[in-house]
Each structure stands twice: as structure tokens, then as C-alpha cells.
Amino acid sequence: MNMADDAARATGDARAEAMARRDRMAVLARADGKRLRALWTGLSLDPAFEMIRGPETGLATVRGRISGDGAPFNFGDVTVTRASVRLSDGSVGHAYRLGRDLGAARLCAVIDALARDNASATKIDSALVRPLQQAQTQRDARRQAETAATKVDFFTLVRGED
Amino acid sequence: MYVAVKGGETAIDNAHRLLADRRRGDRGVADLGLDQIMQQLSLAVDRVMSEGALYDRELAALAIKQARGDMIEAIFLARAYRTTLPRFGYTRPVDTADMQVERRISACFKDLPGGQLLGPTFDYTHRLLDPGLAAGQAPETPAVRAPEQAGMMRVSDFLDQEGLLEPAPEEAAKPVPDDIARTPMIYPLDRDARLQALARGDEGFLLSMAYSTQRGYARSHPFAGEIRIGEVALELDVPELDFPAPLGRIQVTECQMVNQFQGSAKAPPQFTRGYGLVFGQAERKAMAMSLVDRSLRATELGEDLVAPAQDEEFVIAHADNVQATGFVEHLKLPHYVDFQSELDLVRRLRAETGAGDEAAQEDSE
Questions:
Q1: Contact B170 A145 (CB under 8 A)
Q2: Of B203, B191, B158, whose CA–CA distance to B275 is shortest?
Q3: Is residue B228 one of the residues assigned to a domain?
Q4: In chain B, which residues have their Cβ closer than 8 Å to the Cβ of A77?
Q5: Are B31 and B107 within one domain?
Q6: Which of A4, A9, B50, B324 has a CA 20 to 30 Å removed from the CA of B3?
Q7: ipTM of the assembly?
Q8: How far is A3 from chain B (nearest CA, A)?
Q9: Do residues B157 and B15 both lie within one domain?
């Protein structure tokens, strides 16, 4: 019983960790390369690492769905750059980003590898990921507000009775 | 017959050198930066990405600059670059219901949840040239308003609820879609392959085909059920991660065209749909694509085949402007030997019929 609980907790923890990693990768993938490098420099981290793969640029074929929610179809390609690194402590990190910025993909893979360690993850999240995420959220909110200002307010004209 | 001849190397080199000079133009005018093209000619960038079937704003901007603004040449450059890259895989299908919407309108329903959001549109402008823009006047900052928190369901989803709209084709019927970039097209195509071909099709060609259906060549009674433009997130399944890798976001335009349909032996009276999905902000293209998608479903829906826009092979085989320009423009390449043989043939035919002699006599009279 206890063992089952432990297993369930361990599974839950693993899932939460995977989701946190996923969310971090999503922020890093969307981040502007210049801003990413500036924040990284501010962290003063310089771990030794070796490249396992890449950084390399290739294509992903984008799929849509017929009528938005039906069967999938391919509708075009997008450039993607990926990188995988191994730190000297053995941690492995991966990165995927739209576009062709090799340096940014390599850096994102290093950050992903460092964040496999909980203490480093906390530091990276507060000093690098959160500021990037805030900037992204602000950009989205600003654009939403600009779009909302173009919403049509219909009004009904009163019909004359005479 | 092909006969190898040499010559023209110097002429070709010098022609390309001249091209580079003319492309740059007057050196007293500032060189055009890719960032300027990406920012200020963004719809041109979108068109190159959609017809080049390659989403990369910077590469599309470079293609436009290199092609001196010749869009089909730029699209050709994007396609050629595309072939040099390895393929990492297929993304998960984008969820357009979960779009960060920049524009969303429906011509069917006035009061739809989320409302009519005009966004940055040319609609309702007076199409008067703006001297202020020529003078470099700075625009006002955009107005803002608190957005509604309600989600923005697709118009098709609530039309669906009454059962008057045909359902979308189910995934289970064909889980892995065809890919015309990897396998040759064999007619008749499935709808997925057709949509892929239309998505990269020439905007002008699709526009004319769509227009022909409105003018009565395969009438399809269309309504713009919904058009939405905005950013969608991309995810790629990769073996090294136990969750799909988030890639970032791209901008797309989606059009759901709703068509009145009186019913046939194959389907009851209902609203049928045509679908358009295009890279970037490309409303005209997405609308044309959805109209042509619908007209090409004639056989599936049991309609009479009476018009070019219903002829799949005619439409799809001629929609690709890179293929089209390749074949049309190849005519300007040297055909000296072919032409000599044809010249010889026509002379002999005229000699045999004696037509040449009569014509010569008339000329002398």
C-alpha cells in the first residue's frame, strides 16, 4: 500500500517536473535571442559542456486540421533549430526553437541541462525564465487589448413610428 | 534533338553583375534592410512564406530583396532553399480554436461569442492614396480596450450544434495525411493532399478560380462563416522528450466558408464547408482557398461537374506558380536546334503542297 502510494507520488512528481520543464522550454523557444543572451550573461554561469547533437537547422512540417477540427493535413514547412548538450556532471539538455539561430538553440539546451538540477532550476527560473515569460505575457496582453479596441459594438436604430 | 554548344559564360557573368547593380539601384538611396522588409512589407513576406511553403520571416525578406520584389522569383528562392534542409518531423496539428486572435470576423452571425474583431484590416478604408504616408508621417499609437475573457469558439462549432452543418472529416478515417512534398501526386487526390497543394497555390490563380465559382461556373452559394488571423503554438513529438517539444508560435489565417447545399443522392440538404488555412496574414488567399476546396468536393458530394473550378487535375496541376513559371519561362531558353528542324519541316510541307509557290507569286504581284 505504502509502496503504491510512493509510486503514485513519484509518478506525480515526475509528471509535475516534466510539465515544469515543458513550460520552461516553451518560454525559451519563444524568447528573443538577444534578450535571452543578455539575461544569460547576467546569470554569470559558464558550465563546461559537450555537444551531443547540433546545433542544426532543419524543417518541421506544420499540420492543420480540415475545417479546424477534422482530420489532419500538412500545410507547409517551418524552419526549426535544435541542439542537445551534455554537462560535465552528465546532465543532458535539449532545445528546439523556430528559426535559424544556432547560438540561441545551443544556449537553450545548456539552460535545459542546468535546470535538471533543482537548485539551478530555481535560480534560472527566477532570473531568466520568469523575466522572459513576463515580457511574453505583456506582449500578448498588449496585442489583445489593441485587438479588443477594434471590436464592433452594434446598436439598433430606433424605428420611427410616424 | 540536343546538341552541346559552348559560349556565353562571360555574357552570363556580366549579366548577373549588372543584375546586382540594378538591384541595388542609386547608391545615394539607403540600402534596404531585411528588418525593414519584415516590418513594413510584412504581407509580401507572408505571401512568399505561404507560396514558398516555408515559414521563416527573415528568409522570405531576403528572397524578396534578392528578387527585386518579383514575388514568384522570391517564392522560387524560398522553395529552393527549403530543399537544402533535413526534415525533423511533423508538428502536432495546430489548434486554431486556441489562437491568440488578432482579427476575427463572421459574415453569418452578428452577435457571436467573442464578437467581431476587425484587427489591422484594409476593409472600410477608402482606398485613397495617403500623402501623409509618403511624407513619412508617424502613425498614432493603437487604441486599447480591456479584452473579454470568454474564449473564442469557432463559428462552425455552434452551427454544428443544430446539425445543419456537415461534420468535419474524422481523423480515424485517415490518421496519417498524405504529403505532396514527399510523394508524387496521383489523381484523384484525397482532400488532405488537395488542401496541401492549395495552401501553396498561387494567390492570383486561386482568386480567379474562386471568383469563377461566384460568377456561376459551379455556383456554391458561399458565406464567410468565419475568418480568423492570429498566432498558434507549434509542438513537435521527438523521441528524446516524453512530452511534445514546444517550438514557438507562427501566425496563420483560417477561413471557414459555409455553403448552402440543396442535397443530392449522396448527401442531405445542409450547409457544407470549404476550408482555408494559410501562413501569415493572407485573408484573400485563405478565402479563395476555401472556395476552391469546396468546389473541388463536387464529386464527393454528388454534384454535376460543369466548370473548371470543379476539375481537380486542372486546378491543382496549374495552381503552383513555381512549376508554372518554370515551364512558361523555359521557352526563352535557347531552342535553336528545335526551331531549325521545325523551320525545315514547314519549308518541306509547303514545297510538297506547292503553297510556297503560290504565296511567292501573290507577293510579287
A1: no
A2: B191
A3: yes
A4: 53-55, 82, 87, 181
A5: no
A6: B324
A7: 0.90
A8: 24
A9: no
